[in-house]
TrEMBL record:
UniProt-recorded name of the protein: Guanine nucleotide-binding protein G(s) subunit alpha
Lineage of origin: Eukaryota, Metazoa, Ecdysozoa, Arthropoda, Hexapoda
Organism superkingdom: Eukaryota
Gene: LOC108557485
Organism from which the protein derives: Nicrophorus vespilloides (Boreal carrion beetle)
InterPro entries the record matches: Gprotein_alpha_S, Gprotein_alpha_su, GproteinA_insert, P-loop_NTPase
Localisation: Cell membrane
């Protein structure tokens, strides 16, 4: 007699195994709060990932630190090359202060080209050190909003004598400043203790980082599903800079436009919206050095923050509050109702308002990010308890 024993069917067994795996994956995923870092290029998203590793995991091992050395040296070369290249290209151009001693160093760097050398010799570092000491080179550096220069330039060029040593191992601050372009999606997993007022225990997080340049933004949608909160980063100091990929487009304006698309778009409406107005240290330095926001945002002239919001006599305070107001204004620009097609009928559906939480941040400052993230942690847990997001 033939017996139809399903237990012996390999395909059936594999099917049940897959079902169990999917159920397990779903259970695991339900235990994690998913955070998505969004923003244009060079706003500090990867630096936030690094900070999570420092604050909530065990930081960086000795091997991980040593792995960053080639990238730090690449950052040095990219920085000095871009600075000396643009001395003649700016209008008006910038002259070397010590033409006699440093012209040969300019020629040495320009001969290497934009790609870093195979070997970073003592001769190479001597040329870089001499150039960085030249006041003409510093003047060109101070005009870096007129061309493309990574924010870590000054940090690493100030440490030439340390980095050139064969025994050099990057410290935590060096790792935070190290610039490596993000071209793929990365994820970090960490845990935080939950205070008793939210039930105690441990909250588990997955944080995703995606590339910010225009060519990488099409990848964003692949990680939208199941996101509990968006951390949207904007470099506040970008108000006088243009995009690498489009030098006619103001960086801050691009960030605000993308934020508007994300805020009112349909894909992340159920996610909490948290904004980091990042690089406050650079913004403050620019304002104190006389950079004017109204040159790029004419409505800044008529903006007047209240005394309750901040110090009305501080130009820096006014600048950061102006940018926050720009975000608030976006949340008030409600689009027309959406058209829904249900069972052959057309219906209009209003798009609901939602809160945003704006923080002023310095991504390279671990204490600042820890304090801000503790606040974010509370926001996410409150939303979880009220079922507003989760």
């Amino acid at each position: 007699m033939f017996c139809n024993n399903k237990q012996s069917d390999p395909a059936e067994r594999r099917s049940r195994e897959i079902e169990r795996e999917l159920e397990y994956d779903a259970k695991i995923q339900s235990e994690y709060k998913k955070l998505l870092l969004l923003g244009t290029g060079e706003v500090g998203k990867t630096t936030i990932i690094k900070q999570m590793k420092i604050i909530h995991i065990n930081g960086f091992t000795e091997d991980e630190r040593k792995e960053k050395v080639p990238f730090i040296k690449q950052n040095i070369h990219e920085s000095i090359y871009q600075i000396v290249k643009h001395m003649d290209l700016l209008s008006p151009p910038v002259l070397l202060a010590d033409e006699t001693n440093n012209r040969s160093s300019v020629e040495f760097i320009m001969k290497i080209g934009p790609k870093e050398p195979d070997n970073f010799t003592n001769e190479y570092f001597d040329h870089v050190k001499g150039l960085w000491a030249d006041s003409g080179v510093k003047e060109c550096f101070n005009r870096s909003n007129e061309y493309q220069l990574i924010d870590s330039a000054e940090h690493f060029l100030n440490q030439i004598d340390v980095i050139r040593e064969s025994s050099y191992v990057p410290n935590t601050q060096d790792i935070l400043f190290c610039r490596i372009m993000t071209t793929s999606i990365s994820k970090i997993q960490f845990e935080m203790n939950v205070s008793k007022k939210y039930g105690g225990g441990v909250a588990k997080f997955w944080m995703y980082d995606v590339g910010g340049q225009r060519g990488h933004q099409k990848k964003w949608i692949s990680v939208f599903e199941g996101i509990h909160a968006v951390l949207f980063l904007i470099a506040a100091s970008d108000f006088d800079q243009t995009l690498r990929e489009d030098e006619k487009k103001n960086r801050l304006k691009e960030s605000l436009e993308i934020f508007e698309n994300i805020y009112w778009g349909r894909y992340l409406r159920q996610a909490g919206m948290i904004v980091f107005l990042n690089k406050q240290d650079i913004l403050q330095r620019k304002i104190e050095n006389g950079k004017r926001i109204d040159k790029y945002f004419p409505d800044y002239k008529t903006y007047k923050p209240t005394a309750k919001e901040g110090n009305p006599g501080s130009e820096y305070e006014k600048a950061k509050l102006f940018m926050r107001q720009k975000l608030i204004d976006i949340t008030k620009k409600k689009p027309d109702p959406e058209l829904l097609y249900v069972a052959g009928f057309t219906m209009e559906q209003e798009i609901e308002d939602r809160d945003i939480y704006v923080h002023f941040t310095v991504a390279t400052d671990t204490n600042n990010i820890k304090k801000v993230f503790d606040s974010i942690h509370d926001i996410i847990l409150k939303q979880n308890l009220s079922s507003a997001v989760f």
